[in-house]
Design a protein that fits this description.
about 20% strand, five-stranded parallel beta sheet, Rossmann-like_a/b/a_fold, about 120 residues, Rossmann fold, globular, 5 strands, 4 helices, UspA, Nucleotide-binding universal stress UspA family protein, single chain
Length: about 120
C-alpha cells in the first residue's frame, strides 16, 4: 500500500505534498510523488532530494514521471501501486467556481481506486 500525491509547484500542490508526507509517516506507507510532466524531471528530482533530506527523512519516497495529464497519472499510479490514499490540493474558488469543483479534481474523486484526501491552503 502506498500514498500517492502529485508534484505541483503551486501553493495547493505544496500543501498536498506536506499532507502526503505526514500521511505516509503516520501510516508507515511508501510515498509515490507523481510529477506534473510539465517541468524537467531533474528539477523535480532535486526538489524530491531536498524533501528526502528534510520533512520526508527516513520515508520510502519514489518519484514517478507524469505525462502531463495529472488526473490520469494519479489514477494510474494509484491503481498500479495498490495505493491506500491519493492526496490532492484544491484552491480557493469564487462563489460561482464552487459549483464546479474542477475537471481534474472531479475526475480523480470519481475514478480513484482508493480514498482521496483533498486539502486546501
Amino acid at each position: 500500500m502506498t500514498i500517492v500525491v502529485g508534484h505541483l509547484a503551486t501553493p495547493e500542490g505544496q500543501e498536498a505534498l506536506r499532507t502526503a508526507v505526514s500521511e505516509s509517516r503516520e501510516r508507515k506507507a511508501p510515498l509515490v510523488v507523481v510529477t506534473s510532466g510539465k517541468r524537467p524531471l531533474d528539477e523535480c528530482q532535486a526538489e524530491l532530494d531536498e524533501l528526502r533530506s528534510g520533512p520526508a527523512a527516513g520515508l520510502d519516497v519514489r518519484l514517478e514521471e507524469g505525462t502531463g495529464d495529472l488526473a490520469e497519472d494519479l489514477i494510474r499510479t494509484a491503481t498500479s501501486t495498490g495505493a491506500e490514499l491519493i492526496v490532492i490540493g484544491l484552491r480557493k474558488r469564487s462563489p460561482v467556481g464552487k459549483l464546479i469543483l474542477g475537471a481534474g479534481a472531479q475526475r480523480i474523486l470519481v475514478e480513484a481506486p482508493c480514498p482521496v484526501l483533498a486539502v486546501k491552503v
